[in-house]
């Protein structure tokens, strides 16, 4: 038997979360309207600026249109819920998934490696 492992590290994954898509997914997971409203208000109407301490300047505020706050307990949870539909893409393998890291692995006979390679290609194309 052979084990094939594939490791994914989603680049800037937390910054790419679409707020409305997250709210839709949370609604499909039967979250209450009050929870949906609270999370939406938590995510929207945020802005950021860059502080350049060398030049002693601060950039103008920029509205944040996507993403979830990082460095909080809620961030990884919201991101995991956002990608909860991975289970439908990763149905023919075992996987470990937390926040922006995914490990998919397959156990197969060495003569099945070509089939696994084809499956991996189609899986990566169909990922959300």
From TrEMBL:
Domain of life: Eukaryota
Sorted UniProt keywords: Nucleotidyltransferase, RNA-directed DNA polymerase, Transferase
Residues of the Reverse transcriptase domain: 1-128
Record bears the keyword Transferase: yes
An example Gene Ontology molecular-function term: RNA-directed DNA polymerase activity
Keyword Transferase: yes
PROSITE patterns: RT_POL (PS50878)
Protein name per its UniProtKB record: Rna-directed dna polymerase from mobile element jockey-like protein
């Amino acid at each position: 038997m052979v084990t094939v492992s594939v490791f994914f590290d989603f680049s800037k994954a937390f910054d790419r979360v679409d707020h409305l898509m997250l709210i839709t997914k949370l609604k499909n997971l039967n979250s209450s309207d009050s929870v949906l409203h609270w999370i939406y208000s938590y995510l929207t109407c945020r802005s950021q600026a860059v502080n350049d301490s060398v030049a002693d300047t601060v950039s103008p505020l920029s509205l944040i249109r996507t993403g979830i706050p990082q460095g909080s307990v809620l961030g990884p949870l919201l991101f995991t819920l956002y990608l909860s539909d991975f289970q439908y893409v990763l149905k023919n393998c075992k996987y470990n998934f937390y926040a922006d890291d995914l490990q998919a692995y397959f156990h197969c006979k060495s003569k099945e490696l070509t089939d696994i390679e084809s499956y991996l290609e189609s899986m990566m194309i169909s990922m959300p």
